[in-house]
Structures are given as structure tokens and as C-alpha cells.
Design goal:
- By secondary structure, this protein is an alpha/beta fold.
- Among the domains are: 25-54; 66-133, Roll (Ubiquitin-like (UB roll)); 138-264, no CATH class.
- It has eight helices and 13 strands.
- Strand 10 (252-254) and strand 11 form a beta hairpin.
- 19% of the residues are buried.
Length: 373
């Protein structure tokens, strides 16, 4: 019985054991748990914080990296020296590790010709500033006079505008810093987007009723834009049409749909009037009148016989060809035949004897009497 009771107890199995961690993982856990590692990590973090604080509060603005050499490029306006002085003064208060872009922008805020600044550092003491200027695109004309404006509508006070720049009409006052008239803004944008080769040919840009924005070229057609959208594509289409020799003489180029530009207003062809039957009129040369035009005879025309009196009046200064006239009744008509060319004949065998005496005139009437044989 004891053996039978012990058998089920021996059949009971022990719970499964958890797998052991690899040896490397165990070592990592031991290292993390060690106090020495934690102390080292704290020391490293503290050192990094000290370096960051030293850079932020000391080295970043220290004289070791102060700006000493300022190079400024890109200036071409009339007041470029004043802009250069303002930028140099502002830059020398900075370091190559701490460049204040806002301070540089404030230094040139009073010069509307400056559009943007590109700043690069040359460690440890160099600073390079490239000035991007506004390019005058048109001359705004309104109350208060004329002033140059950029393509984005910025008013360029103090900038001398080229006389070949197009004009833009402004309703009311021009403004102080930027154009306020929406129509003038669109016109300035069109002028500013024009290619350099065409900008000097634009006389004016403005709105023309239902056509919208129109640019009038000097000694050329007007370019219809409609609105101030897709300006680059519209100017490219206009350039292709204007470069086409077949489009020379057009009065307008419509680029409202850039993919399908249209040119119109070609001069009508000069139609030469047809001359009457029997004559062909030759156009007179330049500087002559129509009365001096020469008239040539048409060889295919039928000529009308002249009157019976034999007079042939000239027609338009032309001489009619020779023709046979009809004789009047009772008139003897003699037909004269052209004799053939003379031919040499042989000498006769018995030549006539020579007269023995001279022929004398005895009647006094001028008749010759031959002597008796």
C-alpha cells in the first residue's frame, strides 16, 4: 500500500525554471547598478553644461571671436557709401559666433534700395555681407511727382530712375514705402517681370478697359496681359511672337493665354487696280505721280482702225501699230511691191553700136531729137 500511495506523489512535476540572462546582459546590469558609473555620468553631464554655459555667456561674445574685418559686396546704388558705413558699424559690434541678423536689417531699414542681406562668417574674425538691391522696374507717376518703384511695388526714394523705364499711372498719392493702388501694383509687377532685353522698350504699363493690363512697347505693338498672373510664361510667349519676322508690323500681341498667344492688326495688303483692256499700267517709282506712270501696249488686245482721214490720235501716249486703211470710193490704190535684190546678168554677145553724133535739141521745148540713121 505504501508503494502505491507514493507513486502519484512522484508523478508531480516541479515548476519550470526561468531562462538565465546572457552573460553580457548581466554584466551591463551590474555596471549600471554600480555607483562608480553613476558618478562618472554625472561628471560628464556637469562638464557639458559648463561648456555650454561658457559658450553662451562668455566665448560667444568674447573678443577672441570678435568681428574685425567686414567685406560688403553687391552695392551699386547712389547711396552705396552710406549703406556700407551703416552695415560696417553694426557688424563690428558682433562676433563670428553671434551674428545678429535683425540688427543688420535695422541698420539698412532706412535705405529702401536694399532688398535682402546674405551674411557668412569667416572664423575667427571675418564677416562677409552681400547686399541684394531692389532693381527699379518702373516710374510711378501720381500726385506729388514721379518716383522709381521696384517690381513688388516698393518705392525707391532717392534712387535715380532710368529715362527708358516704363511709366505706371497711380491714382492719388504715390505713397511712402509701397504703392497702395492695386492697379499700379499689378502694372509694376508686369514691368518688373519683363526680360532685360524688352524692359527698355516698354513705354508704359496700365489698365485698358476690358483688356486688363496692357504694356505698350516703343515703336512696337501693345502686349495684352489681362492680369498680373503667370508673368514669366506670358513674357516668354510675347518674346517668341515678337522675335518672329512674320509678326513684324502687328499692332497687338495677346498673351492672356500664354500657351496660345495671338498677334493681330497686320496692315492690309495694297491692292493694285486692274488696268483697262489693252493696257497694262506700270506702278510709278517712289516720288513720281500717277500721271507720270508709263503705259505699255498689251500685245493680246485688238486694235481699232483709225478714221478715214488717216490721222491716228494717240491713246495715253501710246503709238498704235501699223495697219491697212480702207480707201475712199473713187480712189486709185496702187500696190507697191518691193523689188527683188539686183542680180548680175551676162554681157550680150552683140553689143549695140555707139551713136555717131551727139543728140541735139532743135525744138527748144526740151525734147531730144535723135539723128537720122
Amino acid at each position: 500500500m505504501s508503494d502505491g500511495a507514493a507513486t502519484p506523489a512522484r508523478r508531480l512535476r516541479s515548476p519550470p525554471r526561468l531562462p538565465r540572462l546572457p552573460r553580457a546582459g548581466a554584466l551591463a546590469l551590474d555596471l549600471l547598478a554600480s555607483k562608480r558609473l553613476r558618478r562618472n555620468l554625472l561628471l560628464i553631464a556637469a562638464g557639458l553644461m559648463l561648456l555650454a554655459a561658457g559658450y553662451q555667456f562668455w566665448l560667444r561674445d568674447s573678443s577672441f571671436v570678435a568681428v574685425e574685418k567686414v567685406t560688403i559686396t553687391g552695392l551699386a546704388a547712389a547711396d552705396s557709401e552710406r549703406v556700407r558705413l551703416a552695415l560696417s558699424t553694426a557688424a563690428r559690434s558682433m562676433t563670428t559666433l553671434h551674428v545678429d541678423h535683425d540688427a543688420l536689417d535695422r541698420a539698412v531699414a532706412g535705405y529702401p534700395v536694399v532688398r535682402d542681406l546674405e551674411v557668412t562668417t569667416d572664423f575667427p574674425h571675418g564677416l562677409q555681407i552681400h547686399v541684394i538691391e531692389h532693381v527699379p522696374a518702373a516710374v510711378a507717376v501720381g500726385e506729388g511727382g514721379r518716383v522709381a518703384v521696384a517690381g513688388d511695388g516698393t518705392i525707391l526714394q532717392g534712387v535715380t530712375a532710368d529715362k527708358r523705364l516704363p511709366t505706371v499711372e497711380v491714382e492719388g498719392a504715390v505713397g511712402v514705402e509701397r504703392l497702395r493702388d492695386a492697379t499700379a501694383l499689378a502694372s509694376a509687377a508686369i514691368a518688373g517681370a519683363a526680360p532685360d532685353a524688352l524692359r527698355s522698350r516698354i513705354a508704359e504699363v496700365g489698365e485698358d478697359g476690358q483688356l486688363g493690363q496692357v504694356a505698350q512697347l516703343r515703336d512696337g505693338p501693345e502686349v495684352i496681359f489681362g492680369d498680373a498672373t503667370r508673368l514669366e510664361a506670358k513674357w516668354a510667349a510675347a518674346s517668341r511672337v515678337l522675335a518672329d519676322l512674320e509678326a513684324s508690323g502687328t499692332s497687338y500681341v495677346d498673351v492672356r493665354i500664354p500657351g496660345r498667344p495671338a498677334a493681330g492688326g497686320l496692315p492690309a495688303e495694297t491692292v493694285v487696280p486692274v488696268a483697262p483692256a489693252g493696257t497694262s499700267t506700270v506702278p510709278p517709282a517712289t516720288g513720281t505721280t500717277a500721271a507720270a506712270a508709263a503705259t505699255a501696249t498689251d500685245p493680246t488686245a485688238t486694235w481699232t482702225a483709225p478714221p478715214a482721214d488717216g490721222t491716228v490720235p494717240p491713246v495715253n501716249g501710246t503709238v498704235p501699230p501699223a495697219a491697212t486703211t480702207t480707201p475712199a470710193p473713187g480712189t486709185v490704190t496702187e500696190t507697191v511691191a518691193t523689188p527683188p535684190a539686183p542680180t548680175a546678168s551676162p554681157a550680150p554677145a552683140n553689143p549695140a553700136p555707139a551713136p555717131s553724133a551727139a543728140v541735139t535739141d532743135t525744138t527748144g521745148a526740151g525734147a531730144a531729137t535723135a539723128p537720122a540713121p
